[in-house]
Amino acid sequence: xxxxxxxxxxxxxxxxxxxxxxxxxxxxxxxxxxxxxxxxxxxxxxxxxxxxxxxxxxxxxxxxxxxxxxxxxxxxxxxxxxxxxxxxxxxxxxxxxxxxxxxxxxxxxxxxxxxxxxxxxxxxxxxxxxxxxxxxxxxxxxxxxxxxxxxxxxxxxxxxxxxxxxxxxxxxxxxxxxxxxxxxxxxxxxxxxxxxxxxxxxxxxxxxxxxxxxxxxxxxxxxxxxxxxxxxxxxxxxxxxxxxxxxxxxxxxxxxxxxxxxxxxxxxxxxxxxxxxxxxxxxxxxxxxxxxxxxxxxxxxxxxxxxxxxxxxxxxxxxxxxxxxxxxxxxxxxxxxxxxxxxxxxxxxxxxxxxxxxxxxxxxxxxxxxxxxxxxxxxxxxxxxxxxxxxxxxxxxxxxxxxxxxxxxxxxxxxxxxxxxxxxxxxxxxxxxxxxxxxxxxxxxxxxxxxxxxxxxxxxxxxxxxxxxxxxxxxxxxxxxxxxxxxxxxxxxxxxxxxxxxxxxxxxxxxxxxxxxxxxxxxxxxxxxxxxxxxxxxxxxxxxxxxxxxxxxxxxxxxxxxxxxxxxxxxxxxxxxxxxxxxxxxx
Length: 587
Ligand code: ARG
Prior knowledge:
The chain is 51% helix and 10% strand. It is of the alpha/beta class. The protein has a four-stranded antiparallel beta sheet. Strand 3 and strand 4 (79-84) form a beta hairpin. The longest helix is centred in the C-terminal third of the chain and has 25 residues, at 555-579. The chain is globular, with a radius of gyration of 29 Å. Bound molecules: arginine.
């Protein structure tokens, strides 16, 4: 890597000048018009040896070996400005062109990571809230993999909770399930429409009708105990739901190695619970089995206003509930059992990551603490919740329909396709659903991933879908444009020459893009990659506007342009691939 080469040169210069342990670091220049990299170490070094900073910077510069990589200058107050030579730029460009990962280097120490994202709930329609997890999870997975990590992705469907009981009870009351209970008539086909109707109806009812809720809890328990016919019906419901979930995740380009659900951990629940009991970690509270996970200093008692008021706490970390009063399993139970299952099915897992809404952070704190207390997660294994923010409407509140309902994922996908089609049509492009889906979903993903994961952001489809600016379609369009030029020229051979500022800027944008992968890896985020891809696309755009590639008469120059185009395409394609954004051949 060029950056390391520069740092070596600077460190050698320090040694030559008699400055010990300098550990010189360079970073991209804050003033790219003036230089490519800068080094700010002279300030600290001067303090250490009690000399004038500018003098130190000058001494270092004067001691740099004559080389073919950089030209260096010390400037006030004490910066060292570094410019890459034409030769260095050309070396970078030509190497990136031929190396497998376009100049990106795999990590030496790689990790084994299980990623838990997606998390759609069976029997409920997917909605807006289910959009971010597959988008972010898929991107992070691809990012880890490109650096060489071994990643196993698990969709972890929500399929063991109250929604199952609610839906089944509602269907039963609607008379749909008679066959299973009486054995009379024909086996009914349970359709998605039935589920879409039954769950919301039951969910609303449970808030008003205590009796109904109690019955639904009973049915849930029966399903969890695999009692018939409840369990058979459950499996049918699950099947219908999962086929729809697969379709949606497919459209969003989210892929999973494991299509497990909470239910797959059910076999591990008894053992997991026993581990807690044996270690004396559980206690009974109002019939439920709970584990205290609060740590010292967290549970700060608040003064009571009246003596009979229950004790309240500041920053309370409530106990995790393993078993409900009726013996049913809860969300925490299946998550804990799933960690047991994961550690038994896979050896030496370094980290388990959960890409789940910020609002579940307390749940994950409880689950993680439980798994550490019980030893279900071995020492040294990281359990991480990567919490994401909410997608808001223009009013800053969670995005809803005009009538105040949450929006179904299906409707969002259709909206993306429709809007992308309109856009393409107005540009005179013939549109298929497949093309519109690639662009619509690409726009959504780029719009999402451009933000910091933890922050809320405003869902603004028109902005995401613009063909100019920091958007997915802009970058897809840049690549499509390169394709169309490459289809028209037939030049072979040659090498990339960097002769003017536009070309220089492209190489620097590539170096920054390569660095962005590293930043994203450190931060577990993808926004730096979005930004750097945009910067490269826009550097290409400037180059394209100033150069007549097809009409260039100088053969070597033309060959160089073609290779530079191929390089930009390769880099953008790789970045978009990591972001999980597809590239249409033309648009
Ligand atoms: N099904 C959950 C929900 O919709 C998300 C699952 C997240 N993953 C997990 N292991 N808890 O809220």
